Write the structure tokens for this entry.
Amino acid sequence: GENVEQHPSTLSVQEGDSAVIKCTYSDSASNYFPWYKQELGKRPQLIIDIRSNVGEKKDQRIAVTLNKTAKHFSLHITETQPEDSAVYFCAASMGTGNQFYFGTGTSLTVIP
Amino acid sequence: GAVVSQHPSWVICKSGTSVKIECRSLDFQATTMFWYRQFPKQSLMLMATSNEGSKATYEQGVEKDKFLINHASLTLSTLTVTSAHPEDSSFYICSARDGTRLSNEQFFGPGTRLTVL
């Protein structure tokens, strides 16, 4: 099955700085890569996603890049704010209706 | 739209008893639902994929006789933890796909915290 690795496991940045989280996947058949934000004790919330036919996607302060050849994708958060503090998970999926395999998570702390 | 609820939000039970967790899609038809388990400060581990009207597909290492999944309608899937033991204590989260959309997106429930004494 798919194996998703995520780094770093913890990340602290000063408010206003950028944060980058990286994931790698093992199965070249994966073609959908969502990123979720989870606050303590709450449900994961989708923040951005990317499909394999696109190399980059941006939504305001959040962007995701995908390198299919290297099988890795990254989340970029610019101008970080304290409310960005949470655990972020990447995931990989092989398409519509298929399972998500999650990375191990990154605990992001934005220091005011 | 695309709201998923879970019930109960938390449950405490004695070792050896069974616990049922419900996952409902409130405003869409969920042809596929997924069950995850999340231990403290760890990732979401997929347990099984549940398709309406058919048997669930379990991930390797997940005991199907211990974690019974039923997806009897397009809006409801249940997970029953049978003969629960303290090591089953965890946060159980379901997610659902909207079968009317081509989107890959899964919508997550708020989770159920199970504590087995």
User: Anything to note?
Assistant: The CA atoms of residues 16 and 80 of chain B lie 13 Å apart. The mean pLDDT of chain B is 92. Chain B touches chain A through 28 residues (CB under 8 Å).
